[in-house]
């Protein structure tokens, strides 16, 4: 894309309302892309229960909680608990397991490189190959 046409494209971008985007889907552990900048994707996810243990060899991953409480478990036995408005960046190659408390549904935002694999090199029934744009 030429610089000028990309410039025009960006100028035409409509503002995004995050609450409205969250109304567009209901699946759990299925991140949706809502924006892209500088090679990074901005994603929304609704999660409930336990995800799979995994790591991303080359990518740091940001978790920002929008609603509910998200727990991030680590292999050293520690857990980071995130409230709405709090975020945590999991460094590349650090194994992690996101989960929620009980049956609470949690809404979160992710920022990570566009090409990142959902569950790293782990393949699981929850693994999503290509994240849908909404
Ligand atoms: Ni991850």
How would you summarize this macromolecular structure in one to three sentences?
This protein is mainly beta and 134 residues long. Helix content is 11%, strand content 35%.
CATH class: Mainly Beta
Would you identify the CATH H-level superfamily? Jelly Rolls
Order of strands in the sheet with the most strands? 1-2-8-3-6
**Count of folded domains:** 1
CATH topology grouping: Jelly Rolls
Largest sheet: 5 strands, antiparallel
Q: Could you spell the SSE succession in H and E letters?
A: HHEEEEEEEE
Number of helix segments? 2
Gap between N and C termini: 22 Å
Mean pLDDT: 91
> What is the chains' assembly state?
single chain
Bound molecules: nickel (II) ion
Helix content: 10-25%
Give the name of the CATH architecture.
Sandwich
Question: What structural class do helix, strand and pairing data support?
Answer: mainly beta
Shape: globular
């Amino acid at each position: 894309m030429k610089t000028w046409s990309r410039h025009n494209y960006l100028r035409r971008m409509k503002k995004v309302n995050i609450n409205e985007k969250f109304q567009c889907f209901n699946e759990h552990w299925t991140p949706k892309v809502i924006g892209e900048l500088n090679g990074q994707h901005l994603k929304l996810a609704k999660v409930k229960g336990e995800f799979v243990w995994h790591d991303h060899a080359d990518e740091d991953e940001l978790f920002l909680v929008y609603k509910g409480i998200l727990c991030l478990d680590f292999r050293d036995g520690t857990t980071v608990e995130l409230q709405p408005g709090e975020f945590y960046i999991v460094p590349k190659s650090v194994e992690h397991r996101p989960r929620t408390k009980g049956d609470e549904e949690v809404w979160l935002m992710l920022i990570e490189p566009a090409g990142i694999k959902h569950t790293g090199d782990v393949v699981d029934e929850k693994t999503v190959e290509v994240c849908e744009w909404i």
